[in-house]
Amino acid sequence: MDKAEFAIIGGTGFEKLFKRLKQTSLTTPYGPVDSVFMLQMSKRRVVFLSRHGLDHSIPPHRINYRANIYALHRMGVEKVLATNAVGSINHEFETGEIVFPSDFIDFTKSRQATFYDEAPVTHVDASQPYCPSIRKSLVENARRLGLHFRERAVMVCTEGPRYETPAEIEMFRRLGCDVVGMTGYPEVMLARELEMCYASVCYVSNKAAGMQQRLTATEIADTSERILPKIAELLTETIESLPLTRRKNCPCANALENARFK
After folding, report:
1. What is the DSSP letter of 76?
2. For 118-160, what is each residue's pLDDT tens digit?
3. Strand, helix or coil at 18?
4. What does the longest C-alpha to C-alpha distance in the chain come to?
5. Residue 15 has pLDDT above 60, yes or no
6. Local structure of 52: helix, strand or coil
7. Considering the entire predicted model, what is its pTM?
8. How many CB atoms are closer than 10 A to CB 10?
């Protein structure tokens, strides 16, 4: 099996950037993973995983998140950079902006959200759900590249595949959410359960329900096509700048320390 230090998980539209690469399939205890590609960025080995499949055929509520994250773990990946298309709930967040979420709220319903269904009972800390080291590097590189971004945001993840109602969006706004998407959870916490560093690069593809007259998949695809080359550049710069070794106090690398009842 090919090994890699870093992984990019691509969401809506991102699969178009990697269609010409060699595709690899993996088998995991949670099911097969097909849309995996190996990259070489300078001296860094990187695996790209297409979350929705190359032809965007897998809806957000049917993605096998556990198989995807476990496959990356088996390949030796310790650092994951994910991309997510989101709608803005915060009136200040504009379409086309890049957002680095710092926290999340889970409103999914039927997803397999943990690797630890059996003993030993395992409670993983989520005080800093996104890796602070990767987030810092993303912010530094986004600033250096002159990108328009939001350094902190609360992302709410909904079940999908339907869009949210105006009443739901108003509820999320009152809860303090800034953006809404359908793929951010349980990916982030599954990575933490395997002590992998994980951070998300979101981009605002539309205003959420009630903030514009109608939502369409075409609008999201059009925005994705415009913004993804910038995100690809940001991911490349960030991966090349990240250290290969992790700090001893990294909350991701030590996520299972004192997390289990013995």
Report:
1. T
2. 989 999 999 999 999 999 999 999 999 999 999 999 999 999 9
3. helix
4. 54
5. no
6. coil
7. 0.92
8. 25
